[in-house]
Amino acid sequence: MIAAALLLGACATPKPSVGEDHLFDSARSEQPGAPSPDKKSACGPEGKGDVVLLDARTAGPLTCTMVTVTKEPASCPRGESCLSEAVFKGHTNARGQIAVAEPFSNVRLVAVADGYSPSYLEDATLTGSKILELEMAPSTGFWLKALDPEGNYLQDLLLSFKQGEEVVANLRTNDLANVFFTQRNPFSGEPVTIEAPGYKPATVANITELGADGHTLTLQK
Asked: Which of 67, 106, 111, 145 has its CA 20 to 30 A from that of 139?
């Protein structure tokens, strides 16, 4: 799977040797925005949608969740005021999908939902049978996506995070190649070295080294 949207982090459970009060704890938690029994009645209509919203922490669909999705020119720099147009406002269905009234091409989709940061899908084109995937990044904690040099997702890969010789966390990537830290940005203090089987160690001192979005780790063979 090629990373088309970097928008991402899923909750991964550290090895038992990592204490619960550690700086890099990644605790089990419920999916933000997950439907409660009361929300089941607020699901969008069933049937195939055009866009599926995925929780970056769990890699699962964001079901029965109120969301607003807008489109803006892909060429407009992020963070600047862009001419935008709403393409959907309502609840996702039980499969996390939404239906869009009209096709579009070469736009940036922006999705906003309670409990999530504004999340993006770059250079999006809706042409027919293909369902677009848009990852929803949680509004708290820090997530990291692991890719190979060709941009492929590194799924089910154990990442070991070290400061000096100390292993501070062991986290496994999910189906979206994400790991998630519940506490804070782990790269805001001392440099962190990340090791993974079959790849060269990568040392990160600042999120500016994590791709244009500040969340992407590219591992080299």
From this structure: 106
